[in-house]
């Protein structure tokens, strides 16, 4: 049995709003049913508190992604609750 993380990786994208726009930033998607779900172009920067620079971006989930995550959690719950 695997945990679904064997092929885990971040998507590399360039960000124009960064103080270092020439560098690629990591984009954090949503981990649902053992895979990264990436469905939206809306992103929120994640700042490094020590430097104030953008270190990553996190995708903002739409209603469909939230519903998919809730449905997956409801299906998985009986197997791990006990």
From TrEMBL:
Pfam families referenced in this protein's UniProt entry, alphabetically: Aldedh (PF00171)
Task: Tell me yes or no: is Protein biosynthesis among this UniProt entry's keywords.
Answer: no
Keyword entries, A-Z: Oxidoreductase
Q: Name one GO molecular function term.
A: oxidoreductase activity
Instruction: Domain (Aldehyde dehydrogenase): give its ranges.
Output: 38-82
Stretches for region Disordered: 1-22
Q: What is this protein called?
A: Aldehyde dehydrogenase family protein
* Organism whose genome encodes this protein: Acinetobacter baumannii
Q: What is the lineage of its organism?
A: Bacteria, Pseudomonadati, Pseudomonadota, Gammaproteobacteria, Moraxellales
């Amino acid at each position: 049995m695997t945990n679904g993380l064997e092929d885990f990786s971040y998507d590399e994208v360039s960000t124009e709003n960064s103080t270092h726009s020439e560098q690629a930033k990591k984009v954090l998607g949503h981990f649902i049913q053992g895979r990264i779900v990436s469905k939206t172009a809306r992103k929120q920067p994640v700042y490094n508190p020590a430097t104030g620079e953008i270190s990553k971006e996190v995708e903002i989930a739409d209603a469909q992604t939230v519903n998919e995550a809730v449905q997956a959690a409801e299906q998985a719950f009986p197997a791990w609750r006990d």
